[in-house]
Specification:
There is one protein chain. The chain has about 300 residues and is mainly beta. The protein has two domains: about 110 residues, Neuraminidase (6 Propeller), CATH 2.120.10; about 140 residues, 6 Propeller (Neuraminidase).
Amino acid sequence: MFRRLTAGADDEVEPSCGSENTFAFTNLMEDRTAIWSVPFDLDRGASKGALEQITEESPAWVDYAALSSNGRFVAFASARSGHGNIWLRDLATGQESHLANSSFVQRYPAINRSGDKIAFSSFENGKRFVYVSTRGGVPEKLCDNCLRATEWSRDEKALLIFGGNPYQINLLDIASRQQTALLKHATYNLLYGRFSPDNRWVSFTARIQPNRAWIMIAPMDGPRPIPESAWIKIAEEHAQDWANWSPDGKTIYFTSARDGHFCLWGQRIDPNSHTPVGPAFAALHLHGRVFYTKRVGRRAEGG
């Protein structure tokens, strides 16, 4: 007759008998997540130190970290309170606070430069909304049926958001709540928009097939649609991959599994033509115990 020997909540595998009285086994805690950081010279494309864990590992999911440009605050989504809500951590003091306690699931924070404003998505009775909140303030609804905000403009008067069917990227004016379509396509899903440092370009993902996408950039000419003829392809990646800019605007960083692991890669671009220069380079390999996960099982794109 079989008899159960362990009663853990995690996966327990690879038993090995050491003697007639003892045995060893591996306890897999694959669902424990934490947020990590690494000092990095984004303009040079070089790490300046080792990875550092900045939140405790938890069986409650923790994801979608958004770092303020001044490096002081990180916003993230977590179910540590029993509900999926937005949290804010002060990296100088280590203090964490609930941004907007709610019984509705909140995800995908987008934090401004100083860390005092955070836009986020809320799932409410089968619908999606985007809110903005200040630290200690009351959340304010910005738009209905829009999926996700991805970045603030440099003057913090607008947000890049995406939604629709297929997804398109809109510019949302904070004061008027008006939306302007920046990037749209008849069949491609366009998402993950990010402003360049000078606010004159935008990077985005063009999902051309369910499992295939292009990392793209395009020039902005004010709040008006950007024609497809102006788009520039930077890389061909998976549908879940996305990109962001270096502070000097001369490098595009993007997620990629091109080496068989979820790592971070960079692509230099010409400062005048903005076309790719040379091959992509590995910015940060994550092949060990600490690895970057795209959370495909929970629909990482926010759709």
